[in-house]
Write a structure and sequence with these properties.
Chain lengths: 203, 470
């Protein structure tokens, strides 16, 4: 994946925590598929399950949005990867925010969801242009640039994140190339860190 | 060169550094639970992968389990299925399982330390954000998502970019009725919800040194609410005394050797950090959150702030929080009435927490307008509390005395707030709808929660006549 492009939707709130992205009741699942319907569930639907017209994703102009604009600390809170699965299943391909929760950010990379860090003022500016609907944002992961309307801006991303977003590699397979190092540690691991299961028989 | 405990443990566990500067870190202990593990186990199966070290992996049922009588059937079909999946996965992949019926079942961050599964100097991972708790014993602990859970299952390692270090140095003693929960909420208020992003916090200073391991766990537990990747406290004699004799702690033959090693891990006196903050917390008051994230917090002697007190860019968020919480600027905290009281969660459900709450409650009655419950952090905590007679104190006062689990902290089982209900809660998150759709959460210490249950509104616990030590 070198380029992500799509309709931008402004959700210009700070501290959008993972409980808001997907409430805990929808974590009682055995698969990661089909969670898009629960995305922002309590903001999107009322207690009878009817769409709340005031919520931006229920606005016809943003139904096809794939690029989410948000304010600082997006994805703070719980480690639930379900938050990322809900976003990607819904169709979101990139989130642009000034900062992200650490665990959310890593979960996103693992699932090919591009999280782009940008200055808040710039996001507010893009958000204003996106408000009317119809603003396409194009993110070039390879070039680390973002364009919208006639504007183009540069952003920075850790090399490892950029590489992984572009390659979509199987990280476990990659890690197993280091198996000799893993085994070497296991040889020297402190013996008192090992677990002898029989011990729980005592009390 | 003087180094921190973070760098020492990191170096010991760093197996390789890739071209992009990420480190491959060995994970000595992996704790897993029924809610964030099923997809990871299933992916292992699909790809024909093994669980590399089942002996270093411990599974427990905590997040969605009912907390009523264990002999009753599990009514929620989806939770039941997740529990069944963990039975099957633990059997197929040969991990130890502390199941719903185990006498050692409990919240993942309670059982790790109390069973000696968490030890100083080790690296630990768990599919839960409050894994920072384990840093209280001097372990380097990471909360991870399900893909990373799978990565640890398959490789016993994590790829991590070395986080920055942040020292939080605390001086001054906490007064009567002021606890580590209050300190933690105060610090989150100072740092903000994102202040710790990309950092591992190390708590240092005389206040931390004088805290018990349980109190340190409450503090480290809440580091994630300031956005921190993790947090840690250098181990000392208090830590070693805590660890000694626990089920999976080093046995007596190895204990001295272990302690000798652990002593070398404490941060060197002249170690430097990427950021350092100092706080003098003399005179700190009990804290109460008023909003929809834990940084929205004031002393119990204070009042609900007005959006005007904040910079313009923050006002919409403040207004939304006040609206959700049904609060008015200027309202005194002690005038806020509560409908529910919850004492529990990985933040505050240890024996010491329940003991303090019982001292507040002893000989009193829960207000007629309040439903109050105590959910011990583990069945082991519950048994020990019952040996001390704490359950009688709570039951006589009108509290429910339940079985262990995450319960109303996450609202995945039937323990939930109803829409509009207001709770004093010893938990970690006051996010919208967290404890039940439309529920309103105020985070407080166990003593403050217990007193709110008795009076039906918040009271300044420092003015309370508490029972003598129980």
């Amino acid at each position: 994946m070198d380029v992500v492009a799509g309709l931008a939707v402004p959700l210009l709130r700070e501290n959008v925590d993972t409980d808001q992205i997907i409430p805990a009741q929808f974590l009682r699942i055995l698969t990661k598929n089909g969670l898009g319907r629960y995305l922002f569930y309590r903001w999107r639907y009322d207690q009878d399950g009817k769409p709340k017209p005031e919520f931006v994703l229920n606005d016809e102009r943003f139904k096809q949005a794939t690029v989410l604009l948000a304010l600082k600390n997006f994805g703070i809170g719980s480690s639930r990867e379900n938050a990322v699965w809900a976003l990607t299943d819904y169709g979101i391909k990139a989130v642009i925010a000034p900062s992200f929760g650490d665990i959310f950010y890593e979960n996103a990379v693992k699932n090919g969801l591009a999280c782009i860090r940008m200055d808040e003022k710039l996001i507010q500016q893009i958000g204003r242009e996106a408000e009317a609907g119809g603003l396409t944002v194009r993110i070039n992961i390879k070039e680390q640039s973002l364009s919208y309307g006639s504007q183009s801006v540069h952003y920075t991303m850790e090399p490892s994140v950029r590489r992984r977003l572009m390659s979509g590699e199987d990280e476990i397979e990659n890690t197993m190339k280091y198996e000799n190092k893993i085994m070497a540690y296991e040889q020297r691991m402190k013996k008192f860190y090992r677990v002898d299961r029989k011990r729980l028989l005592y009390e | 060169m003087a180094t921190t405990i973070i760098e020492k443990i990191w170096k010991e566990h760093e197996l390789a550094v890739d071209d992009d500067g990420r480190s491959l870190i060995y994970i000595d202990r992996h704790l897993t639970h029924e809610v964030t593990s099923p997809v990871a186990f299933e992916d292992l199966r699909i790809r024909g992968r093994k669980l590399r070290r089942p002996d270093l992996t411990v599974a427990v049922m905590d997040h969605n389990v009912p907390t009523g009588p264990r002999e009753e059937p599990i009514r929620d079909e989806l939770s039941y299925k997740q529990m069944q999946a963990l039975y099957k996965n633990s059997e197929d992949f040969e991990t130890m399982l502390l199941d719903y019926y185990s006498p050692f079942q409990g919240i993942i961050h309670i059982i790790g330390p109390e069973l000696g599964l968490t030890l100083p100097g080790m690296t630990l991972a768990a599919g839960d954000s409050h894994t920072s708790t384990h840093g209280a014993l001097g372990a380097l602990a990471f909360g991870i998502g399900t893909s990373e859970v799978e990565h640890v299952f398959a490789t016993q390692t994590l790829w991590l970019k070395k986080p920055k270090t942040m020292e939080i140095k605390v001086s001054g003693s906490l007064g009567q009725g002021v606890y580590s929960k209050d300190l933690a909420l105060f610090l989150i208020g100072q740092l903000g919800t994102g202040g710790g992003i990309g950092h591992i916090l190390e708590y240092t200073g005389e206040t931390i040194r004088s805290m018990t391991p349980d109190e340190r766990m409450t503090l480290c537990n809440l580091s994630t609410e300031a956005g921190a990747r993790s947090s840690i406290i250098s181990p000392d004699d208090k830590t070693f005394n805590y660890v000694r004799g626990r089920a999976f702690a080093p046995d007596e033959d190895d204990f001295n050797e272990a302690v000798e090693y652990w002593r070398t891990l404490a941060s060197d006196p002249n170690a430097t950090y990427d950021k350092s903050y100092s706080f003098d917390v003399s005179g700190l008051k009990p804290m109460v959150t008023w909003g929809t994230n834990p940084s929205m917090v004031v002393p119990v002697t204070g009042s609900i702030p007005s959006p005007d007190q904040f910079e313009a860019s923050r006002r919409p968020g403040i207004e939304a929080a006040l609206k959700y919480m049904g609060l008015t600027p200027g309202q005194a905290i002690t005038d806020i009435k509560v409908d529910r009281v919850f004492i529990g969660s990985c933040t505050n459900s240890r024996l010491s927490d329940l003991t303090i709450a019982a001292r507040v409650v002893k000989g009193r009655k829960v207000s007629n307008s309040v439903r109050a419950m105590v959910v011990p952090g583990s069945q082991y905590v519950k048994r020990n509390a019952e040996r001390k007679g704490l359950h009688s104190i709570f039951l006589e006062a009108g509290f429910e005395w339940r079985n262990a689990g995450c319960s109303m902290c996450i609202g995945m089982n039937e323990d939930q707030l109803l829409p509009g209900e207001r709770a004093a809660s010893t938990t970690n998150r006051n996010f919208e709808n967290r404890q039940g759709p439309g529920g309103r959460t105020h985070l407080v210490s166990p003593a403050m929660a217990a007193a709110a249950a008795i009076e039906g509104h918040f009271v300044d616990i420092t003015q309370w006549d508490m029972a003598e030590a129980i």
